[in-house]
Design brief:
Its cofactor is [3Fe-4S] cluster; [2Fe-2S] cluster; [4Fe-4S] cluster. Belongs to the succinate dehydrogenase/fumarate reductase iron-sulfur protein family. Keywords: 2Fe-2S, 3Fe-4S, 4Fe-4S, Iron, Iron-sulfur, Metal-binding, Oxidoreductase, Tricarboxylic acid cycle. The structure is a single chain. 33% of the residues lie in helices and 14% in strands. It is α+β, with helices and mostly antiparallel strands and 254 residues long. The protein has two domains: 106 residues, Ubiquitin-like (UB roll); 115 residues, Alpha-helical ferredoxin (Fumarate Reductase Iron-sulfur Protein, Chain B, domain 2).
């Protein structure tokens, strides 16, 4: 005999099933051990439109094709590891809801551009992180080791607060046409992280970072297309930050 609890569970399951829709995921697949060419593969899923693209990818990997390869970690928009091109735009799979991207049509998922694809949706991030390391993304000070915290006013902190939000997902850099065509360009993310320290009143290496970005592959390569700002999942005004670095290079005021 069914108990009230069992009846409620069955009712909840039926209600959940009634909200499912059929969605086609069209994924760009690449396995260098099988072929030198990438191909597209379709998967049909029954999924709640309020679920995320990442949930769909999990369902494919766990239930349909265990060989599907992609990066993910926190699944909550903090680690930035699941950046990919979804319907032609750079997004975080964990923050993109099925219902927000027209599930009536196939949802295309492919790796971010400008970086070498290793397998399926996984790209080689080393060039991206090398550019990040090159701009010295750490506080530089001189003198003796401090005996207390280096204090800073709220006004001084506000000067660079926006660029502290970067999660190094590479969505901005891999949306940049200049980066697509020339992997030597530092890219928006590296410049954003340089900005974060150039305008930090406690730092003493602003001039050094500006000289690094004054290189032919540095900040002057930006063509102000705003792709990077549109792609940022944290809402950072990336193009504005790049312009502020350019202005600091011209005026040497920061």
């Amino acid at each position: 005999m069914a108990t009230p609890t069992m009846d409620k569970v069955a009712a909840d399951d039926a209600a959940a099933a009634s909200h499912l829709i059929t969605v086609t995921f069209r994924i760009r697949r690449f396995n260098p051990e099988v072929s030198a060419e990438a191909t597209w593969e379709d998967f049909q899923l029954e999924i709640d439109p309020k679920e995320r693209v990442l949930d769909g990818l999990h369902k494919i990997k766990w239930e349909l094709d265990g060989s599907l390869t992609f990066r993910r970690s926190c699944a909550h928009g903090i680690c930035g590891s699941d950046a990919m091109r979804i319907n032609g735009k750079n997004r975080l799979a964990c923050k993109t809801l099925i219902k927000d991207i027209n599930p009536a049509k196939p949802i295309t998922v492919e790796p971010i551009k400008g970086l070498t694809v290793l397998k399926d949706l996984v790209v080689d991030m080393e060039p991206f992180f090398q550019a990040y390391r090159d701009v010295m993304p750490f506080l530089v000070t001189t003198g003796n080791e401090p005996t207390r915290e280096r204090l800073q006013s709220a006004e001084d902190r506000e000067r660079f607060d926006d660029t502290t939000k970067c999660i190094l997902c590479a969505a901005c850099t891999s949306s940049c046409p200049v980066f697509w065509n020339d992997g030597q360009y530092f890219g928006p993310a590296a410049i954003v992280n340089a900005h974060r320290f150039i305008f930090d009143s406690r730092d003493e290496a602003g001039e050094q970072r500006l000289e690094i970005l004054n290189d032919k592959d540095g900040v002057w390569r930006c063509r102000t297309t705003f792709n990077c700002t549109d792609a940022c999942p944290r809402g950072i005004e990336v193009t504005k930050a790049i312009q502020e670095v350019k202005r600091a290079l011209i005026t040497r005021r920061y």
